[in-house]
Amino acid sequence: MLLLIPFVGTLWMPFYARLEPAFFGIPFFYWYQIMWIVLGSLIIGAVLLLTQGRRDV
C-alpha cells in the first residue's frame, strides 16, 4: 500500500506540470520530481524494514 504513494504522486501530471512555485530558482516541475526520488527511496526503505524479518548474521 505504501508503494502506491510515489506511483500516484508522479503519475498525476496535471498537479506538477507547471513552473511555479520555484525553489531556489528551480522550476516546480523539476524539484517536484527530485523530491519524489528522495521520498520514493525513503518509502521503499520503510517497506523493506517493515516486511523483512530480523536477520542474525
**Into which percent range does the helicity of residues fall?**
55-70%
Largest sheet: none
Poorly predicted spans: none
Q: State the end-to-end CA separation.
A: 30 Å
Order of helices and strands: HHH
What value does the average pLDDT take?
83
Number of DSSP helical runs: 3
Radius of gyration: 15 Å
Structure described in brief:
By secondary structure, the chain is mostly helical. 63% of the residues lie in helices and 0% in strands.
Explain this structure to me?
The chain has a domain of 30 residues. The protein has 57 residues and is mainly alpha-helical. It contains three helices and no strands. Helix 1 runs antiparallel to helix 3. 0% of the residues are buried.
Which descriptors would you attach to this protein?
single chain, 57 residues, 63% helix, 0% strand
SSE topology:
Layout: H1 4-11, H2 13-16, H3 28-51
Helix pairs in contact: 1-3
